[in-house]
């Protein structure tokens, strides 16, 4: 990007408040762009209190878009019905969230006459292809992508740069994390070596076994393939997922660790916790077993993996 043309450009950058997105925002804030908007698409992340603090200090506009209901209805429910489980190992997560994030952030760019849309995924993350592919399919008429696609800047270097702005709380983040109401996920850092890693138990929020002898009986009600009630109490899908993450998580259920494939058959280790996903996918599968014919179940499973 030619610095001499910066004043003519408006930029929207995806912002999670993590190390990578904060580093990019800090760099952009030192350039004289016509407009910089940091966009946080809220899909159910519980820890986002630092967002406004960071953007205020950098003098950047922040837009937080509440897309939890949209995400649950348009991504999570279809995933339950399709039994979206990656190679029968763990529930799909980022593939559901990235198109929603791309759509909502692109709309901000259009509404604010911004011709650049940035994110911070890199070559070792499938989010790079998911975000770029989603933006491309939505036909964004501008520049888009990630400056980290071929970047060799280490997390240590980024953290050191951010200390100049007083963001020392970011320097202790060793892993790349992602959170929404369907999944909490970690990758990179110490997880880059799948044969030798130790994940700190404190990273888990939902799937933490109660110190008491916890026994819980839960009744789930589905209507037309959609979960609508817990213990005969009707509730909306967002509240239902959040409640299940807590109640199922108390039993320590919903942890997943697995290798995900990158282009050229490279593989990366990802750690997830998804208590609500675990029980909802399993419950829906039992309903299918009770209602559908065996040949139809087998064909649905085969087509689902394809």
Task: Offer a concise description of the structure.
With 306 residues, the chain is of the alpha/beta class.
Structure description:
The protein is globular and about 60 Å long. It is 37% helix and 20% strand. The chain is α/β, with parallel strands linked by helices and 306 residues long. It is built from nine helices and 14 strands. The strands form four sheets. The protein has a five-stranded parallel sheet, sandwiched between helices.
Structural features:
single chain, five-stranded parallel sheet, alpha/beta, 37% helix, 306 residues, globular, 14 strands
Instruction: Determine the mean pLDDT.
Output: 88
List the strand order in the largest sheet: 3-2-1-6-7
Shape: globular
- Approximately what portion of the residues adopt beta-strand conformation? 15-25%
Q: Count of helices?
A: 9
Cα(first) to Cα(last) distance is 39 Å
Given the helix and strand composition, which structural class is it?
Answer: alpha/beta
* Strand runs, count: 14
* Helix content bin: 25-40%
- Parts with pLDDT < 50 across at least 5 consecutive residues: none
H/E topology pattern = EHEHEHEEHEHEHEEEEEHEEHH
- Summarize the biggest pleated sheet: 5 strands, parallel
- Rg of Cα set: 21 Å
